[in-house]
Structures are given as structure tokens and as C-alpha cells.
Amino acid sequence: MIRWLAVALATLTLTGCQAEPENWHGKDIQGLMPDLAFELKGTNGDTVTPADSRGQVRLLYFGFTSCPDVCPATLAKLRRAVNDMPDPLAGDVTILFVSVDPQRDTPERLASYAAFFGDRVVGLTAPEPRLRDLTKRYRTTFGYDEPDAEGNYNVSHSSAVYAFDRSGEARLLLRPDLTAEQVTEDLIQLASAAPD
């Protein structure tokens, strides 16, 4: 009887020491996607890698500056979500906007577009083959529609945002149906965690 009580007490004690389970609004992809890795061109022509934002929570989003609806809505939601975070944590989030339209998205155009959504947004791109490799890494893709008579075309792409923790581990897939408030809650939880 005493032995059973000792085992029960030890079990309760150890159970009480375990961390609370994480409660996410986004889809938990920890262990399902690779860590953040890329080598892209920034708006000033320099090579940008995850090391440039080491220690930050990173949000990776694929889009293009001529996008009529999804891209601006997503970036506006992310800007609001980050701005609604407490001050010390908001500065620890970087939004990586990767243009999958390198033909039209010149460094100048990409810089202007990214700046419109705030100083937490970093505009990036690369030649198409490198972009294909990167989107394949995160199990997504993009495609170009047929151009119209004026040469304008749409680009089909995913509307999801990949969230990486401070150590660069893939943690969440933020779906378009999440509200800015839900994204804020997830970002606070990610930014509050110590890096591994």
C-alpha cells in the first residue's frame, strides 16, 4: 500500500511539472515541415538568408505585388496581428514576403510594396528555378496564367503563411480563415517561448 502511494505521489508530482500543452489557432506543423532555409535576393540586391533574422519569429508568405486581393489582405492582416502584440514582442517578428513573380517584381517595386505594409516586412525574390525549389521545400507551388492582350497575367499561389519559431523550426501553418486576433495570439505564444 505504501509503495502504491509513493508511485501515485511521484506520478502526480511529475505530471504537475510538465508544461501546459500548446493551444494554437493555426495548424501545428512542428516536425512535419523542414526548418527555415533559403538564399534569396533582398530589395537592395544583397543575398538574404535566415541568419539575417536569427532569433526572430519569422512568417514566410509567397505572393506577388500585382496580386489583386489575397496578398494585400494577407499582409494587412499580418501587419495588424504584429502591431497588436505587446511592444517588446512585436519587434521580434519578421514577415518574409517572397515574390513568386520575379519578371515584374523588380527590387524597387518589391521594396515599395513591402514598405507599404510596415517595417517588419522584408521583400525577397529569386530567379524562378530557385523559387520553385523553395516552394517545393514547403510543399506548395505557384503558376502563371496566360497573359491578356496587354501582357498582364495572374499568378496562382498558396494563401497560407508559414510561421517559424526563433530557432527557425517550422511551427504553424496560418490559414486565411484565421482572424488577426487569432494570429496575434499565436504570435505572442511563439515569441514568448525561449529559442531551443
TrEMBL record:
Gene3D superfamilies: Glutaredoxin. GO terms for molecular function: metal ion binding. SUPFAM superfamilies: Thioredoxin-like. Coiled coil: none annotated. Disulfide bonds join C67-C71. Keywords: Copper, Disulfide bond, Metal-binding, Signal. Residues 29-196 form the Thioredoxin domain. Cu cation binds at C67, C71, H157. The keyword Disulfide bond applies. It comes from the Bacteria. Residues 1-19 form the signal peptide. PANTHER family: ELECTRON TRANSPORT PROTIN SCO1/SENC FAMILY MEMBER (PTHR12151), LINALOOL DEHYDRATASE_ISOMERASE DOMAIN-CONTAINING PROTEIN (PTHR12151:SF25). Belongs to the SCO1/2 family. This is Protein SCO1/2. It comes from Marinobacter oulmenensis. The lineage of its organism: Bacteria, Pseudomonadati, Pseudomonadota, Gammaproteobacteria, Pseudomonadales.
